[in-house]
Design a protein that fits this description.
The protein is an alpha+beta fold. It folds into two domains: 159 residues, no CATH class; 143 residues, no CATH class. The chain is 24% helix and 33% strand. The protein contains six helices and 17 strands. The strands form four sheets. Strands 2, 3, 4, 7, 8, 16 and 17 form a seven-stranded antiparallel beta sheet that branches. The two termini are 42 Å apart.
């Protein structure tokens, strides 16, 4: 696959053996901007369309997130665009402020002229949610019209996925000394883990703990964990983690215990919160009242609306030796 620089070098080699029409200047000054160059190229393209038996050519374009999609051409010419060549001024090959006259296939010339037009009149159509539009070349009136649209995301409310509240009954010292359930133990509801965790938190002086979680794009995790009464990072529980093969008695932090219990809650009440646009929620461990409450939400699929830009008309003008001269 050839690179952009290689294509430019190839075009330069072809220029050396190209016979140019005497009526057209070999170079066009762009020191004053692209407006005059666009007018010249629109004029050349409209003249070529008319010579090919056509009156209109419409180019549809779109882009988003820093990439552009395929530019589609609709035309009423008698000849397929790639079968014919034409002359245009190529700003990509400009040297010292002069764009050289090049002879290339009509479809490639259309793409170059459209790139020049978009760089001037809809440069940001690939930014963010992007944009789209049409460029219509009118051979009869020797002009082109640019009608573009910008896309923007519409704010949408999150989708409530519900809530649930469970009563946790502990037995104080007995539960506090109990081992954390191993993978072999049947604790599918997580009741035993909750009782052990609640009794340990109560013993340490905690009244309430809130654990937030969120996810999206097929991954998720817990976030902020808040307890106003104690510093949870300074305390640990002795148990076998349900997700690891460790010996009984290994020290595991309460933060990890809270994370594990929260994931148990999510798997039962909020399955899929990490998929696609994702979601989140919170689990509140009310130690004083012996309850655990979950509430969650799903993020909505993004919605976009289009906003029309001001219509732009570029009058074509066949370049002459005087129009292509550098400004004094």
């Amino acid at each position: 696959m050839s690179t952009h620089l290689e294509e430019i070098e190839k075009e330069k080699d072809e220029l050396a053996v190209t016979e140019f029409p005497a009526s057209l200047p070999r170079e066009f000054s762009i020191e004053g901007g692209l407006e005059d160059l666009l007018s010249a190229n629109v004029g050349l393209l409209c003249d070529k369309l008319k010579a090919m038996g056509g009156q209109k050519l419409t180019a549809s374009y779109s882009g988003s997130w820093d990439s552009s999609d395929f530019i589609r051409f609709d035309h009423d010419c008698d000849i397929d665009l790639p079968q014919e060549s034409m002359f245009i001024y190529d700003a990509d090959m400009a040297s010292e402020g002069d764009a050289p006259l090049v002879k290339i296939p009509v479809d490639k010339a259309c793409e170059k002229v459209i790139d020049q037009i978009l760089s001037k009149h809809h440069e940001d159509y690939t930014y963010g949610a992007g944009g789209n539009g049409e460029i219509v070349f009118d051979a009869h009136n020797i002009a082109c019209t640019v009608l573009g649209f910008d896309c923007h995301e519409v704010d949408a409310d999150v989708i409530d996925s519900g809530s649930s509240s469970d009563v946790v009954v502990g037995e104080d010292e007995e539960n506090r000394q109990a081992a954390w359930p191993s993978p072999e133990q049947n604790d599918s509801s997580g009741e035993l883990k909750l009782r052990i965790l609640f009794d340990e938190l109560k013993y340490l002086g905690a009244k309430s703990v809130t654990v937030d979680y969120s996810g999206g794009g097929d991954s998720g995790d817990v976030g902020d964990t808040v307890c106003n009464e104690i510093d949870l990072s300074d305390n640990s529980l002795q148990f076998n983690s349900v997700n690891s093969l460790v010996n009984s008695g290994n020290s595991v932090s309460i933060m990890n215990a809270l994370r594990e219990v929260t994931f148990d809650m999510m798997s039962r009440h909020h399955s899929g919160f990490e998929n696609n646009e994702g979601g989140g929620g919170s689990v509140v461990f009310d130690i004083e009242n012996g309850t655990v409450t979950w509430s969650g939400y799903y993020n909505p699929e993004p919605e976009y609306k289009e906003k029309a830009r001001d219509e732009v008309t570029i009058e074509g003008k066949t370049p002459s030796l005087s129009s292509a001269a550098k400004p004094v």
